[in-house]
């Protein structure tokens, strides 16, 4: 089945190196290329989490848009928030272990912001999704085994809900794909509205 999307005859570019985002985007049946953007992802953490995620997504899309003359560029960024603290990707196995220990037995929030940027018009639309994730109490041996697997190291919050750490999550409130790294339903609705035929 192909969803009723009316898109311009332009290249679609995903401005992200995440294989998880590419896999999710494929579910819409879109043909796209991957062109990661090299931006500084360190923003002022005084921004609210939703704004932070959207700002990074927009920066990624703009960086790629500056290099092409025509296309549909998609940027996205995911952050994990525990209390009022944003948890990025761990810089070491020790930091990954500590992040998971802190998430154990608690509820945290996952925000993914995305941006659709059209070239050459430079029109853009952005959105953000939030999902609450509750972890059960984790055993030290479970945390250690997961960190040793290497899966924790390239993910915000030091876990990926689509891999073995799925057994850490006791409950999700919101979009599952958002936690993986791309809020598929919200993105689809935004893309459909963005390129809806003008009446």
Explained architecture:
It is a single chain. This protein has six helices and seven strands, in the order βαβαββαββαβαα. The protein has 199 residues and is of the alpha/beta class. Strands 1, 2, 3, 4, 5, 6 and 7 form a seven-stranded mixed beta sheet that branches. It has helices at 19-26, 49-65, 93-103, 140-148, 176-180, 184-194, and strands at 12-14, 33-34, 71-82, 85-87, 107-119, 124-135, 169-173. It is elongated and about 55 Å long. It has one domain (12-194): Maf protein (Alpha-Beta Complex). Helix 3 runs antiparallel to helix 4. A hairpin with a 2-residue loop joins strand 3 (71-82) and strand 4. The longest helix has 17 residues, at 49-65.
Q: What's the SSE blueprint?
A:
Layout: E1 12-14, H1 19-26, E2 33-34, H2 49-65, E3 71-82, E4 85-87, H3 93-103, E5 107-119, E6 124-135, H4 140-148, E7 169-173, H5 176-180, H6 184-194
Parallel strand pairs: 1-2, 1-3
Antiparallel strand pairs: 3-4, 3-5, 5-6, 6-7
Helix pairs in contact: 3-4
Specify the overall morphology: elongated
Count of DSSP E strands? 7
The H/E string reads EHEHEEHEEHEHH
Report the β-strand fraction as a percent range. 25-35%
- CATH class categorisation: Alpha Beta
Q: Compute the number of structural domains.
A: 1
What does the average pLDDT come to? 91
Q: In angstroms, what separates the terminal alpha carbons?
A: 26 Å
* Uncertain regions spanning at least 5 consecutive residues: none
Using the CA coordinates, give the radius of gyration. 17 Å
Counted by DSSP, the helix tally is: 6
Task: Work out the helicity level.
Answer: 25-40%
Identify the CATH architecture. Answer: Alpha-Beta Complex
According to CATH, the fold-level topology is Maf protein
Query: In terms of structural class, how would the helical and strand content be classed?
Result: alpha/beta
- Major sheet details: 7 strands, mixed
């Amino acid at each position: 089945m192909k969803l009723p999307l009316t898109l311009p005859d332009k290249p679609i570019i995903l401005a992200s190196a995440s294989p998880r985002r590419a896999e999710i985007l494929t579910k819409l049946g879109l043909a796209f290329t991957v062109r990661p953007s090299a931006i500084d992802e360190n923003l002022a953490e005084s921004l609210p989490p939703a704004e932070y995620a959207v700002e990074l997504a927009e920066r990624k899309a703009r960086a790629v848009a500056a290099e092409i003359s025509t296309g549909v560029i998609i940027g996205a960024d995911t952050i994990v928030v525990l209390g009022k603290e944003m948890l990025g990707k761990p810089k070491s196995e020790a930091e990954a272990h500590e992040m998971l220990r802190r998430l154990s037995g608690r509820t945290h929030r996952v925000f993914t912001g995305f941006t659709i940027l059209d070239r050459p018009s430079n029109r853009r639309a952005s959105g953000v999704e939030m999902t609450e994730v509750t972890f059960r109490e984790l055993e030290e041996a479970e945390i250690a085994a997961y960190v040793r697997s290497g899966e924790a190291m390239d993910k915000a919050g030091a876990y990926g809900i689509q891999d073995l750490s799925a057994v850490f999550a006791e409950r999700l409130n919101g979009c599952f794909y958002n936690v993986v790294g791309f809020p598929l339903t919200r993105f689809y609705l935004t893309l459909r509205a963005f390129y809806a035929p003008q009446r």
